[in-house]
Amino acid sequence: MKSYRKELTLEIPTRMSFVNITPDVEDALKTSGIQEGLCLVNAMHITASVFINDDESGLHKDFAAWLERLAPTSRRRLTDTTSPERTMATRISNVSFSAAKRSSR
Fold first, then answer.
1. What DSSP assignment string belongs to the chain?
2. Measured between alpha carbons, how far is 9 from 12 in angstroms, rounded to an integer?
3. Max CA-CA distance within the chain?
4. Taking the complete model, does pTM exceed 0.85, yes or no?
């Protein structure tokens, strides 16, 4: 069985952002030479999430608004630390997208 691995490192200057990595994934698949099989795209950080959907700005705005209502970043939580990556809002946002991915199967 042939396998290939490529890591992408993204530097996001804002608290939340939606980044289309489709061209990077397509490039990795082409470079790998693999013609068929599975492609696993995984966010390797607790505050990141990978989701599959249309790359449409209105959808991104809706997701951002929904996450802000669900887990407001303006209110500090008791479990917050001084690290912005460990805030409750960030954790809830990540879990929400992960749960949405599982329930859409």
1. ------------SSSS-----HHHHHHHHHHHT--SS-------STT---------HHHHHHHHHHHHHHS-SSS--TT--SSGGG-HHHHHHHHHHHHHHHHT-
2. 10
3. 49
4. no
Token code pair at residue 63: 């997701």
Contacts of 47 (CB under 8 A, 6+ apart): 85, 86, 90, 91, 94
pLDDT tens for residues 38-92? 999 998 887 788 888 888 889 889 988 888 887 777 665 545 555 555 566 666 6
% of the chain exceeding 90 in pLDDT: 28
